[in-house]
Write a structure and sequence with these properties.
With about 425 residues, the protein is mainly alpha-helical. It has a single domain, classed as MFS general substrate transporter like domains (Growth Hormone, Chain: A). Helices cover about 75% and strands about 0% of the residues. Helix 5 packs antiparallel against helix 16. The chain starts with 9 loop residues before the first helix and ends in a 14-residue tail after the last helix.
Length: about 425
């Protein structure tokens, strides 16, 4: 009797993957690494960048933590709206014009506008650059997730998706490392590093072709006269309405929870008693190490989602990640009184609150046929970001209302209850092939 993929050794499944399939995964992974790096840069430089820009706009007057919290939350919210718009727009374009062409365009967009953020002279300049950067970041995920799902073998898609999402942790590490390397050069130098992903776009253009599934679907649509049909409304008609609503809600919960809490980690560390009296440079170094530890925990979360989903199903693993995040957010943000305590808790929080994102490149492409795959996955993963964009803004407002970042983050973490509530209505796709 032949050995199944579950029974096979770790080495055997890797040997059965073709070099081209590895190449596609690597290029998509690299694009997502720089996606993550560019998205993380802002969280790292939020305080020094806004302090400089607000002081300049105010004629050199004092800049308070409340002002930084307000404008920082506002820019993060604008960023998430841009991510949502880009994810939906470029998801549709990836179904119309191809995954590879869309991947190239989105990487160029987020690279160019991350670099241009270094030229900001006012807070709203930075907000505009972050919005345009986010258009590319959102679109890159939709195209990358679709191309990996369609090129890799059916029985290995969950492993590929877990490896793809692990790029987010790698990007965090890269951003933190760049922060350490360039901490003496100011926040503008860190944004300039964000131009580097433009070179990845050239690799995509040279090495990656359109998936055969997409080519065949396009030919079939042309034969039926459907090539230019508007596709978004189909997501809200039976039988796709239920998976669209469930997938969008789960993505909203994950994004709202992570961006409403995790991006305030640098500010939380700066407010710890044993951080008082340290220089800004020393605190920047402490923040970098904390971000590295958060993502050290996120990495096994990303890589374990796929094997767990293959064994137990998609819904139980989403439930595990939601429940773990619901517990760990308040524990991490409310209980520590020293830097060492935060370092112990952040890897556990990262496992759950970041690990949940590995479920989306696995689960969302399984909900839609090829002709709607990037549109559906892009919509679900990103549409909820319009609502989730209130997360950072809400956290900033709650800091004022509740008196601390710990209490504010704990309140925002209640969103994970919504994730647990919607899971019984989400379709289970374990063991099913991609719909054609």
């Amino acid at each position: 009797m032949p050995q199944t993929d579950v029974e096979a050794s770790p080495a055997s499944w890797r040997k059965s993957v073709t070099p081209y399939q590895w190449l596609v995964l690597f290029v998509a992974w690299l694009g997502w690494v720089f996606d993550s790096m560019d998205a993380t840069i802002y969280a790292i430089v939020l305080h020094p960048a806004l302090e400089e820009l607000l002081r300049h706009a105010g004629g050199g007057g004092p800049v308070t933590d409340a002002m930084i919290g307000w404008y920082g939350g506002l820019i993060l919210s604008i960023f998430l709206i841009g991510w949502a718009v880009g994810g939906v727009l470029f998801g549709v374009l990836a179904d119309y014009f191809g995954r590879t062409k869309t991947l190239v365009a989105t990487i160029l967009i987020y690279a160019i506008f991350t670099g241009l953020a270094a030229l900001s002279q006012d807070w709203w300049h930075l907000a505009i650059c972050r919005f345009l950067t986010a258009l590319g970041i959102g679109g890159e995920w939709a195209a990358g997730a679709a191309i990996v799902a369609e090129v890799w073998p059916e029985d290995k898609r969950t492993k590929a998706a877990g490896l793809l999402q692990s790029a987010w942790a790698a990007g965090f590490f890269l951003a933190a490392a760049m922060n350490l390397l360039l901490k003496g050069y100011g926040w503008r130098a860190l944004f300039l590093v964000g131009i580097v992903p433009a070179f990845v776009a050239m690799l995509v253009r040279l090495w990656v072709k359109e998936p055969e599934r997409w080519v065949q679907a396009q030919e079939h649509e042309k034969a039926l006269g459907l090539a230019h049909k508007v596709r978004l409304p189909e997501l809200f008609r039976a039988p796709l309405r239920r998976p669209t609503l469930a997938g969008s809600t789960l993505a909203f919960v994950a994004v709202f929870g992570l961006w409403g809490t995790g991006n305030w980690t640098p500010t939380l560390i700066g407010a710890l008693p044993d951080m008082q009296g340290l220089s800004r440079t020393d605190i920047a170094g402490k923040v970098s190490y904390a971000i590295m530890l958060f993502n050290l925990g996120a990495l096994p979360g990303y890589l374990s989602f796929g094997p767990l989903a293959d064994r137990f199903g998609r819904r139980p693993v989403f439930a595990l990640m939601c429940a773990g995040s619901l517990i760990m957010v308040p524990v991490t943000f409310f209980t520590p009184h020293a830097y060492a305590h935060v370092l112990l808790l952040l890897p556990i929080l990262g496992f759950f609150s970041s690990g949940i994102f590995s479920g989306f490149p696995i689960y969302l492409p399984e909900l839609y046929p090829t002709r709607l795959r990037a549109t559906g996955a892009g919509f679900c993963f990103n549409a909820g970001r319009v609502l989730a964009s209130a997360g950072p803004f809400l956290t900033g407002a709650l800091v004022t209302a509740l008196g601390s970042f710990g209490r504010a983050a704990s309140a925002v973490a209640l969103v994970y209850l919504l994730g647990l509530a919607v899971l019984p209505f989400a379709p289970e796709t374990k063991g099913r092939p991609l719909p054609e």
